[in-house]
Amino acid sequence: MRDRTVKIWAVTEKGAHLGQRLCAALDGELCLPDKPWASGFSSARTVSSLGEGIASGFHGAGGHVFVMATGIVVRLIASLLKSKAQDPAVVVMDEAGRFAVSLVSGHIGGANRLAQEAAAAVGAVPVITTATDTHGIASVDGVVSERGLVVENPPAIKAVNMALLEKRKPLLWDPMGIYADMADLYVPAGERAEADVVVDCSSDPAKEGALVIRPRRVTVGVGCNRGTDVEEILEGVEKAFQAGGISPLCLKAMASIDVKADEEGILKAAERLGVSLSFYTKDQLSGTDGVVTPSAAALKHVGTVSVCEAAAIQSARMGSLVVPKVKGKNVTAALAMASSTL
């Protein structure tokens, strides 16, 4: 999972002083070249090579603010950029603290928001150049970032944003009502197959060219025999999604019983999936409403009639069970849906 810490980079002593102010406001980490003057900034991390230091944690950071010339930044990060869906926020500030420029990943990565926050911290002017923002329109990828959604096919964003700029209202399929407050920008689609923008968790294919957006509302509860390897656990999770016809991109969290807190396969599975992992006591699981597949074996071995179903429901903030227990040789998995994005 991505570390949410913002990295503040500076190459001069003056820039480092500005960087300190930004760190305090953004709860960031100051990163400096290994120069004699850098010793005056005791809390800073120093790097012998600026390029290598940036590259080593570029995509793992919550964002980057560079206090230096834009040209330097462009040359430093050019080879690191992958796509608007993967790149972190990149903001550039001048040493005088006059401007904060959103340079890369303005919407999905949150650079526009980071530029505004950095500017507010030091009294600078935020510079936002994305077309939808300059026209006062809520871009589809901006909303995705703000609401914790996931875009399945990022190349389709461009056509939808262009339609919004040209005041053409795309057809929207949104059964969960996630875009309900933006009714003036979209027209409700009569059926999923005709929609230009699909916002749901169904794994059914949308029409060709449609933008598909996934709400991260699904949690998976997992139970397993001791020593089950990560691949078998991941296979069990995949089978649960297949059984429910649900997109794995909607997965937000994994959960199990606390006696599995040291189960290496579960720990590695959550890490591989890039989701949070929580554990519940047998008493918490026993008191869970909505369990449909109680197990006498589970009661005998761990003291509760349900592990995977109850854990999924608990992790979904007492949401609804959408895929009951799917049982494999050594793994059980169940899916629950939260009532709002987790």
TrEMBL record:
Entry-linked InterPro entries: CbiG_hydrolase, CbiG_N, CobE/GbiG_C, CobE/GbiG_C_sf, GbiG_N_sf
Signal peptide annotation: none
Domain CobE/GbiG C-terminal: residue ranges: 219-336
TM region positions: none
Protein origin, superkingdom: Bacteria
Domain Cobalamin synthesis G N-terminal: 57-133
GO biological process: cobalamin biosynthetic process
Name this protein carries in UniProt: Cobalamin synthesis g c-terminus
